[in-house]
Design brief:
With about 325 residues, this protein is mainly alpha-helical. The chain is about 45% helix and about 0% strand. It comes from Olpidium bornovanus.
Length: about 325
């Protein structure tokens, strides 16, 4: 469903790397046809009148076929070229996508190793800018200015899929959440307190809390008490060592389930940053949680009311 020519092709030509650009539409269509033949039902994308579940299932077919074909070519491409051996499959999911759950289990995020799996989108952009200037690669401008997109939905006259539109948050915001979560060990309430201060000039308090809740809905916020307190070791619910993944969905958003479980199958990544979400090696946490989290939301709501009352008293 790609809408634009691949900037990767331009880069491979500049660095003189072997590259194949192939279309998988026929493969995807054959799976659609098979499903329809078995069930008698034809799923549609949202832009064609389908439900959210239909659209996600169709996107996942494409994403998972990318993984299957990547491994097929990795095993046989050297044979095709008359050489022996096999190739490694490299992943390209970044920290923000992993924390947000903006990926599919066993799709193109699955690989042998992920060179950028421990780096946020914000820092990746900074590295691309550095590489562009230091190695004289102006072709990287195409990546820096491109709209991030999974390219899994059909493009229409009034719709082009965008990562940030799908997530309801920018990669800049996700980068902030990722650092607060892992490096500063913030839970949802303490994170809200920090963002009230840090985002004072950017968002209203209501917008700040909404962004926390929106992120939490996708399973991106976790909590690690800095003092090491555990259940039963003194302290209340706010000191529990288990990950407090939130499950909030507003009336206008889609009630997705928590995505934390996806991190249990992350591809091993090059460990580069303290905010890495590498589940099996660096960021050990449980992955099944109650999605209610009423205590945390109640505390955030109480804090917002307290701030509003304080402002009203100042105006009197």
């Amino acid at each position: 469903m790609r809408a634009s020519p691949p900037p990767a092709l331009c880069l491979f030509r500049v660095v003189d790397s072997y590259h194949i650009d192939c279309n998988i539409d026929d493969i995807v269509k054959s799976i659609h046809t098979f499903f329809t033949a078995v069930t008698g039902k034809t799923p549609k994308f949202k832009v064609h009148g389908g439900t959210v579940a239909e659209g996600l299932a169709l996107q996942n077919i494409q994403a998972r076929m990318r993984m299957v074909l990547s491994y097929l070519f990795a095993q046989l491409l050297l044979w095709v070229r008359g050489r022996s051996g096999a190739l490694l499959v490299l992943g390209s999911a970044n920290v923000d996508e992993s924390l947000r759950g903006y990926m599919t289990k066993y799709d193109c995020s699955s690989a042998d190793i992920n060179p950028i799996g421990a780096i946020s989108k914000k820092d990746l952009r900074r590295f691309l800018a550095y590489a562009r200037d230091s190695f004289d690669l102006p072709v990287l401008d195409g990546f820096l200015h491109a709209t991030p997109t999974a390219e899994l939905e059909p493009t229409t006259a009034d719709y082009v899929q965008s990562d940030e539109a799908d997530m309801g948050m920018t990669y800049e915001e996700l980068s902030v959440f990722g650092r607060l979560r892992k490096v500063e060990r913030c839970g949802p309430f303490s994170m809200f307190g920090k963002l009230v201060r840090d985002w004072r000039e950017t968002f209203s308090r209501g917008e700040r809390s909404h962004r926390l809740l929106l992120l939490a809905k996708w399973g991106a916020i976790g909590y690690e008490p800095a003092n090491g307190c555990r259940r039963g070791a003194g302290g209340g619910q706010g000191q529990e060592v288990f990950l407090l993944l939130l499950g909030y969905a507003s009336e206008t958003s889609i009630p997705f389930q928590i995505n934390r479980h996806k991190l249990t199958v992350l591809t091993p990544s090059y460990h580069a940053e303290a905010y890495s979400p590498d589940d099996n090696r660096y960021d050990l946490r449980p992955f099944l949680y109650n999605a209610g989290w009423s205590w945390q939301f109640r505390r955030i709501d109480e804090e917002v009311r307290t701030m509003d009352e304080a402002l009203k008293r100042q105006k009197i």
